[in-house]
Amino acid sequence: MLELKHIKKSFDGVTVLKNINLEIEDGEIVSILGPSGCGKTTLLNIILGLIKADAGELIFQGKDILHVPMEERGFNIVFHDYALFPNLNVKQNITYGLRNNKKLATVEEVNGLIHLLGLKDHLDKKIEQLSGGQKQRVALARTMVMKPKILLLDEPLSALDGVIKESIKDKIKEIAREYHLTTIIVTHDPEEALTLSDKVVIMNQGTIAQCGRPEDIINAPEETFVKNFILRQLEIKRNNIMMLFRESEAKRFQVV
Length: 256
Known about the structure:
By secondary structure, the protein is an alpha/beta fold.
């Protein structure tokens, strides 16, 4: 279990996180959801160890790791821009982290991940030859060969659309279930959070507005902010889809 107790963080006198308390069970997929500036990325970076909290405890497997360096925590992150090496091919990207520590994953384990993520036919390709969905799968594979104790994902679907997005969502779920891997996702998209996660943490202005199962949040929002944020974001998405559809239809009937 990962437990956050009374986590606080300020930057230049501005409070970003106010007394955050949260429990995440082993193997659980948890989304941290909220608008820009609510503190969700800061919270993710504190869990990773990239940012130090001002106060509180971060309990993992019964030990407070709040002051343990990032490289000693054993957590790994997939960034929204993939952060792949353009000068290396797919297989070299996947196995890059094993160059100095081959004990992390065996050849069989690496091949199993490649098969799970459907990358076997792309191993010799350069990164520039891949689609957005393929890049995301390479980034997932590269992180998984390091055998993270917790997998962190920063806006993993933000650059993807339609069928590709759904495919990556399925892969994230499959990885979490296959490896019983605690997975924490930061997103601003309610649809992603509610369809991908076991638990959703909704943040507003540095606090947790609500935490619970997707169905509980949908059926019983505890605050007006929660209800309005979800409905507003889903309405924006619906309007964007309709606008794209109308543009597509207009092009079809455009006279050349």
